[in-house]
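Attaching the record inline, Q. Sequence:
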Amino acid sequence: QAAERRGVLKYNVSVLSKNILPQGSLETEDYIVIVDILRSKILRTLSNIDEIAKLPGAAVMRTKEGDLSLAEIRANLEDLLRFKVQPLIGLIRSTGLSKDPDLAILYLENQLFQNKLEADQATGKVLTLQTSLRQYMQEGQSVSGPMAGEQQGGQTPIPGLGVPAMIPQFGESFLDRLTQMATENSDIEFRQDITERVIEEGVKAVALEKDTSYYQDLIDALKGTLRRGGTPEQIEVRDRAGNLVQARAKETVDSLARALDQVNAIYTDLSAHNLNANAMLYQVTAPFTVRTARALSLQTLAVAGLLVFILATVLSSAGVLAYGYMRREIIDAPAVEAETTNRPAARRAEAETPDPALAGR
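Structure, as predicted:
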């Protein structure tokens, strides 16, 4: 239950699978939308690979099929993005390829608007965190600044010698210093956390600004080229370009699905190698041996017979003692008492009975 349902034998890292890939939308969406979706999926997969690469031992782990590492998978995805996906943007720009130019421009403008909002939000977070950190440090300095009357080792002259002696002064400032030292570690961790968040939001803002420039340039370039109709030659060129985009999109989806499976395989093997609990549960100290244990062995029968013999001896002895006690109290006691009672009567009868010899006389 702990391993299968709660995942205690796997790293707590979000790993993408091929379920994120578009399936039916490739046939219905506009060409520029298809290429943008594939670009977004590849970038997200690259970010996920970077997150998994931070795990211990991830750099040397390889897949069982293909013998690929995370660095090689990342390189293949970068080549896929640069040599197969990005050239399709140039093809669409040069041929004016679009199923619905108005909707395509509207999609790009909406993406540009969303990226600007997210970039402004990331920049605002950076400014807020920096301001909070600066204010926190200023307040900390004002509280832990030079303390009046602080004497870590006051020099007090020894009477009669005039030699100063180091006598610590335990005052309010000394207790404040102890409190400051106790909270120093937590203060450092708090500032490190704020700094890491500032860096993270700053990097995110830079990436969003790059995407904003990308969509802006794409809109400016496509507004004059996206069109409907045209000469038969232009229509034929757009048809061939459309078929090429569809074929490249399917190839990209297949390549990205294989890369995601490879990343998941490395993550599974890495978790099993680093978080396997077998070493903590048992340890092999000798070669394996096979031994058959019967339900009733000779040793078990011998021990059981010995126990039965001892128990029978104890019980028989107790029975004999109990029988002797009962015989003495119930049977022998009345007989002895009757004999004791009849002895005086027998003596009196014997004394009263005349002797035959004396009676003849």
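The chain is about 70% helix and 0% strand. The longest strand covers residues 154-157.

More tomorrow.
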